[in-house]
Amino acid sequence: MLFYNRLTQKTTKQLPEKIILGQWQIITDDLRVFLNNCELNINSREYIFPDLSNRCSIRSDDGKNFYKNFYKWQYPSDILFESLHFFESELQKLISNSASWNDLVQLPPLVPEIEDKLNIQSLETITKKHFGHIEEVCRRPRSYLKMETERLPVSRAQRISPHAAEFLSSHTEDWERRTFCSVVPKRILCMVKEELLDIYENKVTVKLIDNLLIYIRQRIQQVKALQQQFEDAEYLSGTTNDIHWRNQERIFTLWGNYCDGTAELKKAQATLQELSQLKYKLQGLIGTELYKAIPQRTVEGNTLKRTNILVNDQHYRYVDLLWREWSRINSGQIKNSYQVLEDNQKLLRGFESFCILLIGLALTGDGSDDNKGFGFEAVDNQIPIRGSKEIFFQGALGKVYLSWLEDGSFLLKSDGIQDLRLVPILANLTATDNPETITFILESFSQNIKNSNEHQTIILYPGTEEERKKLPLHIQRKINNIGNDRLPQEDLISILPVNPLDIISLERLARAINWWLNSQRYQSYPPTIEINISDNLLQNTDWLEKENKSNQIRVLYLPSPEEEQFFSTSLQNSINQLKSRGTKYKGEVEKLEEIKKLPSQAAELIKPLQICPVCHTEGSVTVLDSQCFSCECSNCDISWGTRSCGNCNEKYAYIQTSKAEGENRQPGWVERTFGRDVLSVPCWMKDNHNDFICPHCGVCSQSASSGGKDCVRCQ
Length: 715
Fold this sequence. Notes:
single chain, about 725 residues, alpha+beta, seven-stranded mixed beta sheet, four-stranded antiparallel beta sheet, 23 helices, about 40% helix, elongated
């Protein structure tokens, strides 16, 4: 039995003291291994998950035992749980039906069956309809009388016990005085009636109130999350100068193809109002005499004993009705340990399925004219499967290879640049309001991935914007960052929140892929070719430049037809001159013949730099100082290229779009404003669209030129 760390991609025999949900897997061998008392398959790989009590136990036949506690906040909400299960189920259906890649990207990356979740549910309707009967039970409950004997003063005696005379004769302390023929008592043994509310039917009523309150609170949380999604979609796709029009158009297309946002927002508001009113009514029953009289909730499970009172009483029978309806809805929540294990494994696989959908939509779009992603097409048109061969994509921006690794992570490759690895981690980091806990986890993640030089790593987790807004600003920025929006002297990891409740998730992940693909490619300018060429041929050839190394030639830009013709003519003249000298120059002639391929080789290297990263049409390269370049697109009015940082002298890639006049520079403003159409982060200053933050040193170009006086961020 070994434990696999998905961030380091290494196995170990021990587990850390604190486990992050989704980071660790168990790799079993030929010994029996039990996870939460469930036997795992031999030679399998499973995620480490807690049981229903947030504890995890692992034991094997070799005597090794591990017991770990999980923080409850790491587990996703109910609506996210259902959504991720949906994406995994849909993916498995597509795979079993031998569907294509184009079928996969037809799935919208949003909460499924959203209209049904916004409608008032049957339990809510019945509760609202029969609430008066439940209230009547709480105000005037049934009870039973209990008769007890008690010594009371004569003035309070109502019903004397049959044993009063016998008891009084032997207890002289209860005598007031003696008379000639009798005793005048001071206290006497009486029969006292006691009304008890602690009967089974009342216990069921109180337990029902508790269950309904839990259910209503969960429903309110669910509808609020959907309402927030509608409000974001309405704002982002509405008429506002804060959002760049291309980003706005993409969001509008994504949302508009899914549902009518305005109508659904009104429905969400109406449903939320009804649920809130129902919650207040149920909370009002907590102060009744019946609720206070039964502090112990002794009714367990969903099984109800249908007593005579619960069946025939004019009010209690509606307690029975509501209990049966609540039990029907919650019947699927009572599961054995094997079902819990299966659901948890499916949950994280569902997060993987959601992430592969986002990656697919970023690369190829959904196939429609309005959504082509980055312009790639799946050559094989197949759906990737965990641990299977890579999928090949071809487009104007080059070639990309996508692999779904056996450990559930994704690997993106492209020629000439470092690979990108995307690791879905299910732990909902923003669900805790403790900044120290999040900081500790981020430091742990950083230690796990900092030693990997083989590829870039981006961690994906299912956080929501509403949760992030409750955290300090510096934490918000760290948990939503691809690593290029750093402050001076700051070390960041690449970590992004993505989930079906956040409509920006697709733009956020697409922006990360854009940064991986184009920033590395742009920073490699000028591309070099290893070829032996004489200085005579390089004379008057502005599109080529010789490096210090003897056989390295820099390609500065794509030559015009005239420049290419001039180069070919000069080359052919040199070949003819050597041929005229005889066969002893045959070797040199062959070397010059190889140089004929140089223009086509240069075109292959330069053309990807000329492709507009926004609309994918072709622009032209302008050579700048410090081995930088710029391009402009006449089709969409943007420019892109590289610049040299005035602070650290490192090159960085940028995309400069037309203005977006938003004043909000809170964490996450970049993807909300520009979406995927940005590389280096623009300066935080208002109305400054020409300066960018250096991803290497964290200083913006405005600060570097003014010594930090003009930029509030860098002061």
